[in-house]
Amino acid sequence: MSNMADGKAMGRINALLDEGSFVEIGGEIKARGTDFNLKQTDTPGDGVITGYGVIDGNLVYVYSQDASVLGGAIGEMHGKKIANIYDMAMKMGAPVIGLIDSAGLRLQEGTDSLEAFGGLYFKQTMASGVIPQITAVFGGCGGGLSILTSLSDFVFMEEKSGKLFLNSPNAIEKNDKSKVDTSSAVFQSEESGLVDFVGNTDEILGNIRLLVTMLPMNNEEEAGFAEVTDDLNRLVESVEGAKEDTGIVLSMISDNGVLFESKRSYGKDMVTGFIKLNGMTIGAVANRWKVYDENAEVTAEFDGSLSIRGTKKAAQFVKFCDAFSIPVLTLTNVNGFSATMCGEKSLAKSTGALAYAFANATVPKVNVIIGEAFGSAYTVMNSKALGADVVYAWPSVKIGMMNSDLAAKIMYADEELSVIKEKAKEYDALQNSVVSAAGRGYVDTIIEPESTRKYLIGAFEMLYTKKEDRPMKKHGTV
């Protein structure tokens, strides 16, 4: 074992994996220095520890960079060690977890270092959709190294010491770090949406362990079934009252309240994450109108429309679930599209990507309409038209083209206010009624909110053997 064993790099590995399970690979490898006196520099392990171990009994491959060796910079042998871990993970069908703490590209090795970067990009691309890739940033992660995070499925970041950037904050025109720290965990989680979870080291490692236990080990294996101690027929009495914050709703219906929320600080008007139903991992996508904290105080509020960030976040998540055969649940409560100048620049594109993700996914898909479901925004949220296998709706919901008051104003623009009000009521009954939607087959079953959990468990059990083909093609272009 390399003499880095007592440093932060090894400490993170030991804290992440089951006790005593780590086996190091390539511990004696050092830099193959050629220029700038690198031959005279001791480079134990070439600045990265690589190997394998288990998390709750599940095989994982890990690399952990050591900033005490040349700043943890990636050179030729450093890159080859990580690439070797990827090769082994692909053969064995196991996740790769990268613990980043690096100065980036090793300048002393020039094009050898660039080649190492390119080789890792290729390995990650080949692994995408085959094995889960998880990256955690504990120190520096700049320049070309940041692309490793963008090629990962899930990214964690230490709240204080983590620095993630393509261009450093001071290199951006009209900006410096004191104005906007674009390398900070806050920026990368809230603005760029690259980071899924921000916290201290213990919180990060604990959440990685939770995530690994909820994911399949590869694209040919099912996600691990957890032992079920929760009542499968449990009624969720107050769930309708929580519908504005679907993060709470998902926790309420999940086995024992388990929820791993991805990109939790980005596009908060959309919740994406994993829950458990009868021990089965389910990917959840849900519209959210309000965010409540642990003290039941509102910390964010939205207008019920689809946004660029929300649709991007949801589309990426659905694609991941489909790649790894994780069933998808949606909780729909949406009234239209965000009407802003910024939105017009790319909302149609991001919404198209969301529609594509749902329509293209062949995994079991269940939709529960819990509030409003108006217009094309409702259609792209995993509707029957896009291929949802089962659609449930709560009795109080509204489903239709648009809000009845607005519809009446458009259709009867020249009439008096009393006529418009009367026509709005008529439109509500005929066009926006959940009974009307169910009568046309767009809703399969109208269910009581408190029965949502047991209906979902039954639906996903019924859909367990689902098989569905798509037209033969290399891949889509959306």
Automatic annotation (TrEMBL):
UniProt keyword terms in alphabetical order: Transferase
Every CoA carboxyltransferase C-terminal domain range: 231-478
Family matches, as SUPFAM superfamilies: ClpP/crotonase (SSF52096)
InterPro entries: AccD/PCCB, AcCoA_carboxyl_beta, ClpP/crotonase-like_dom_sf, COA_CT_C, COA_CT_N
One of the record's GO molecular function terms: transferase activity
Residue stretches in coiled coil: none
Keyword Metal-binding in record: no
Domain of life: Bacteria
Domain CoA carboxyltransferase N-terminal: 1-230
Identification of the protein by name: Carboxyl transferase
Organism lineage string: Bacteria, Bacillati, Bacillota, Clostridia, Lachnospirales
